[in-house]
Request: fold
Amino acid sequence: MMQVPVEFQTSKGLQYILSKGWQWKQSDSERIQTETCPVCKKAGWGHFYMVCEPGKRDGLWQCMRCGKSGHLNALKEEMGDKIQYVGDFGTKGDSEQMPNIEQMHEELLANEDAMDYLVNTRGFSLEIIKQQKIGFGKRFFKKLGGEKLCISYPYLIDGNAVFVHWRTLPPTQKEFSSLKGWEAPLYNGHILNDESLKEVSFVEGEANVIAALDHGVKDIVGVPGANFKKAMWLEQLDKIEELKIYICYDKDQVGQKAAQTLASRIGINRCYKIILPDFEIPSDEGGTKKGKDLNEWFQHGGGSAEKWETLKAQAPKFDVDGVTNIDDGLDRFEEELNGKTGMMPKYMMPWPSLGDKLGLEEGDILDIIAYEKIGKTTFGLNLMEYFVDQYGEDGIIICLEMSNDRMIRKWVSHVSQVADKVTFDPVEAAALNEKFKEGVKVARAKHHNRPGNLYFCYPKGVKTLDDFFKLVTDCIRRYGVKWIMVDNLQLLAGRVPRGTHSRMEHLDRISKGLQGLNKDYGTQMIRILQPHRNGNDELCTMNDVDGSASLAKDCDAGISLNRSKKPEMSSQALATEGMVMSSDASFDRKLLVTVDITRYSAGGQCTLDYVGETSTVREYNHAQIKAEEAKIKSNILNEVKDVSQLTTSAGTEGASAQSEI
Reply:
């Protein structure tokens, strides 16, 4: 076991080295070296080095043999642990220092209450408690508002802790906490590094794995929570082609739904579903209740390694998602009704005036169409930010028009309300720079303090339609995104070759492919569409989609956006001597939103307020807008007045000079 030097405790680079299980040793005060270069696979110490001093250089690496080098993200891309072209914020916040695992373990062994819980409630043997270095201590739990006694579960690879998960010690309310700033791997996940592995079982959490290990089941890993998001370990699974995969989650609806989602992300044809038999466990009231997880089955349901093998032999493949019989369908619908207080759509719109006309459900596709420069991307960004922020689900914006850096700037402007107005005045430009620096702080704080993540992707290297579909699939499988925005379909059709297909057929293939991915993985999708040109100044509608008419048939709802263009300066006004005109925008702020297509409601129209300088769409407030326009008009009049005074002054001075001559 290699002890991590104190100065490297919070290094992102070393965290990654540890998570991969690579052999390493300290080289000097700033760097470590590995026994084998992970890129060229050449063995021997003294040629692959990585900076592990926390700071801007953390994670920089170089191989003296193959000559490759780069930053940490480049190495992750080489290893297949990061998707190329996707802007990843990484783990949230600074890395918390790894606690002393040995000290927490010794404190556990000395604490009677904690040991009683693990041995008598969980049913763990002393041997497995020592083997897994389970610990005890105090930790702050945000939801509980203070420090609480808790059990610690370290994730070990070759004796090194690469992650820690804490659970409150009963009778305190059950809550969990994780090591901040560290990627959450699979518990016991190092077994996937063995490419000769023949089978593996997935369960939820650490306790189920520990119970299985305690009973002689070895090829088992724990997913850190049913609603996990990132899953870079899928790359390891994909490398083991003949691997047989079992999934055993809790027997309730939540557990079975999570199991189906996991199977979809892994590859549903590779997965077998283990369903535990019915069994009873003691209840807190002194009676019994139905047991539901693997830990309980081993302790109270007569579970053993032999019976586990029998369950595996009987395990069926997962159902094809979307196929159900009447009884199962009615059971699920009844459970869904029991879990709801009403029949509102699951996902509501950010604006009440639109929310009473449209809502979205799981698996829906929303199309947005508008003429150029009306605000399709901004409207989509507002929706994505709202869904990620409000529902805690991850999303990705795949934009073919703007780079990741430009989209990040747009997002910062939106969430921090920094007016991103182009200026050619050095003083104003410097002031805007300072405002954006403060805006970045606001945006970073928002990102760090919410469960949802928003990713940005500029797919500049995508060459074929299959490449694009693979990119979307990888984002769903590895990052766990539930919301996908594609901006825009017509531009994508022009970027990737269509072969012998007509443009209409090509767009249809793109639309059907995205629809299939959305249904297969149970995600929600926002698609930005371009209309064909209309020279009659008519409102844009979903009937104006450029290309294939089938695009509208593949969505669950369609929205069209329209804004009025402001009157342009006339030639007469331009010719008027001394006339000074200024305008802050080419289009009116009033945004007409029409729900043209929807499967589940009547649709309708509403008016929203489009504030371009902060990339924000908000409820339309006539009085507020008029007050803001009056202020702008006043500034323009003052500008005209200043110019007029300068002109008059210059004329007077000229006349005076002429008189003196």
Remarks:
- The chain has a mean pLDDT of 87.
